[in-house]
Amino acid sequence: MQSKIVVALAGNPNSGKTTIFNNLTGARQHVGNYPGVTVEKKEGFCEYKGREMRIVDLPGTYSLTAYSAEEIVARNFIIEEKPDVVVDIIDSSNLERNLYLAVQLMETGAPLVLAFNMSDEARARGYEFDIEKFSQFFNAPVVKTVGHKGEGMDELMEEIIAVASRRSESLNRFSVNYGDELESEITKLESMLRRHFPLTDQYGARWLAVKLLEKDRDIMARIGSAEIDEQVERSAAYVEKMAGEPPETSIAGSRYGFISGACQEAVRSTIEIRHTISDRIDSVVTNRVLGIPIFLGLMYLVFSLTFTLGDPPMGWIEDFFKWSGGVVAGWWPEGSGSLLKSLLVDGIIGGVGGVIVFLPNILLLFFAIAILEDSGYMARAAFIMDRLMHKIGLHGKSFIPMLVGFGCSVPAIMATRTLENRRDRLVTMLVVPLMSCGARLPIYALIIPAFFPQVWHAPMLWIIYVIGILLAILSAKVLRSTIFRGESIPFVMELPPYRMPTFRGVLIHMWQRGWLYLKKAGTIILGISILLWAMTTFPGLPDEEAQRFEKEKQSVQASVADEKDKPASIASIEDARKEEELRTSIAGRIGHALEPVLKPMGFDWKIGTALIGAFAAKEVFVAQMGIVYSVGEADEGSETLREKLKDNYSPLVGFCIMLFCLISAPCMATIAITRRESNSWKWALFQLAGLTVLAWVITAIVYQAGGLLGIGI
Ligand code: GDP
Ligand code: MG
Predict the structure, then answer these.
(1) Radius of gyration over alpha carbons of the chain, in Å?
(2) Which of 303, 322, 414 is nearest to 362 (CA)?
(3) Ligand 1: does its nearest atom lie under 6 Å from the Cβ of 148?
(4) pLDDT score, position 170
(5) Ranges under pLDDT 70 in the chain
(6) Which residue among 14, 31, 56, 91 has the greatest number of ligand 1 atoms within 8 angstroms of its CB, and so is best to mutate?
(7) Rounded CA gap, 629 and 270, in Å?
(8) Greatest extent of the chain over all pairs of C-alpha atoms, in Å
(9) Which pLDDT does position 560 carry in this prediction?
(10) What is the residue with the minimal CA distance to atom 17 of ligand 1?
(11) What is the pTM of this model?
(12) Which-ligand-closest: CA of 16?
């Protein structure tokens, strides 16, 4: 004989629990009390298709936090007695509020069935539910019921039996994503719990960690570890500092975000029902027609801010490095060929200084992104893109890692861990580098003002970013319908409530980015700059060549009659010598060897060496252009790098540089992290080769077409 199925009925007060309990059990019930508390315990029995069931009517609760005896009783029953099925009776005419309990039940990992009760009321109020979607979002069957009329009871029984017999299969615990800060604290607590609390596995480490961060006294007492309590204090303080609200508020916000996202996707309403301010903003911002234009418009705003506010401080930093280059050069006599002087002035000030110049742009960009993120808008952007990506058959949740990619591809690739489907994950990982990362910004900030008039600055930057997004989506689509064909599962995109970002949180986020940038400039970029300087300086001219230039100079000294012309003639010989020296340097030789590949894109060997350097880290492109152009100059610091570029290249070449840098593989770190996260060299090399080839093809096409059409030459 099969054992009895134990079914627990959970739900908000007045959702119709008792009504359904009575429907199922008829007269076979008895009432008692839960031990030690005055909370009523009702149990009953029933039989359906030969299966015996014991049904427990849990006390009505809005939540599973330990605010009341009812909540503790309900939650302990679910976690400790492990019923075979938990049925959440939901008042579906009041769906969002009722789903809060459903989310928490889902997080306990209990085998769940959702009864959308009061579905008569819901229909009367004009709601239509996409039952299929809800059941995917909550990873549980959903049944529509009308309790007092007994409608849907057979279907409910069927699903209860189905879930109960699926019980033995390992359940995929699904959880709300609480955002970077909370998630990292949760992970910390989880590993501590595993070490300190023997019952961790019974409760689930993640569930316990979340409860602790919600300051759940009941759980704290059960664990009873001072060490864990201390860590909870620290974590809570950190989250509060970063988010401007205590973790429990933030956690509740994320849960409502999940619900809100699910309802946006799966509830249609024939009557206007939105009332909160968040809802009203959302009805505009996530509007099917306006959503994407608003997203693109906000991006544009961010970029014009980056340039207009960034320009003056950038000028000051530029002037500072020009001045310090002059001061350092002044330590040596005029025309000195000292290697140390060249290293300091050309290699370090020209290279690293050239990168630091763009710190204001970086700070401003990340200031704006932090505001968009902390206010809750970024979640909307992901939500809008989710819809678009669904339409073209892609996984929507991929867009969150892609948004992270605006900062840096490395954490973005790590963020693909939230995608459970390996195919989705690989596709996202491979295309994430097309989202223009922060390290490319200095390249755009160098090129755009050099070649384009003021009014074009923000639009140009916007175009580059949009090209990146479009290419990412397109490549994902291509990969998804070729190498990675297959179904994808819908996910809930969370829509947390809007919040006023705290000034402090935004500043901290901005500064973290800025500091990373400076640190990178002071370490990896400094190192590579010195290496590249050496490659552009050595081996130097062979003796006879050097002597030839010396002789020429001397003969000018002796022969030119007009004293006024002498300095100019000598300078031009000096320039020719420098040019020859560069051409025969190691970097020059490598660059020249690459010319057949570079030419179709309109690049010369100097750009070529900078592009190779950029593979170590994108900012190196700027550094190397600074080095090449200051090593090649006889007089120090007379012009800014941008002026030199403007004299040497056309706007079309400038655009092509940006395009190539945007599309080609961002840096070694990205390839390395792809290797680690995909656990295969194959995909890492595929990414490297794929992006490089794509970059080459697109840039060459644009350059050739631009040339033919006479645009920007
Ligand atoms: P409980 O607090 O969750 O146990 O809720 P009850 O079972 O006591 O039900 C509360 C009220 O809702 C009662 O008056 C029920 O008759 C009514 N009710 C239960 N199910 C439905 C339903 O599906 N539709 C409507 N319109 N009313 C219902
Ligand atoms: Mg009741």
Answers:
(1) 32
(2) 303
(3) yes
(4) 47
(5) 1-2, 33, 35-38, 167-174, 270-276, 335, 391-397, 418, 420, 487-493, 560-568, 631-638
(6) 14
(7) 65
(8) 123
(9) 60
(10) 16
(11) 0.66
(12) 1
- As annotated, the residues of the chain forming the CATH 3.40.50.300 domain(s) are 5-165
Nearest ligand (C-alpha, residue 31) = 2
Residue pair 21/55 in contact (Cβ under 8 Å)? The answer is: yes
How many angstroms does the Cα of residue 90 sit away from the middle of ligand 1?
A: 10
34 vs 18: CA distance, rounded Å:
17
- The CATH number of the structural domain formed by 5-165 is 3.40.50.300
For ligand 1, atom 12, the nearest C-alpha belongs to 16
Query: Are the C-beta atoms of 51 and 5 separated by less than 8 Å?
Result: yes
Q: Is 85 strand, coil or helix?
A: strand
Please tell me if the CB atom of residue 59 comes closer than 6 angstroms to any atom of ligand 1: no
CA 46 to chain centre: 51
Strand-pair partners of 91: 117
- The answer to whether residues 617 and 544 touch, using CB atoms and an 8 Å cutoff, is no
Compute, in angstroms, the gap from residue 150 CA to the centroid of ligand 1.
11
**Dist. CA 535–CA 532, nearest whole Å:** 5
136 C-alpha to center of ligand 2: Å?
A: 29
Specify the amino acid at residue 399: F
Per DSSP bridges, beta strands 85-91 and 5-11 are: parallel
How many helices, marked H, and strands, marked E, lie in the chain? 36, 9
Give yes or no for a cis peptide into 539 (omega within 30° of 0): yes
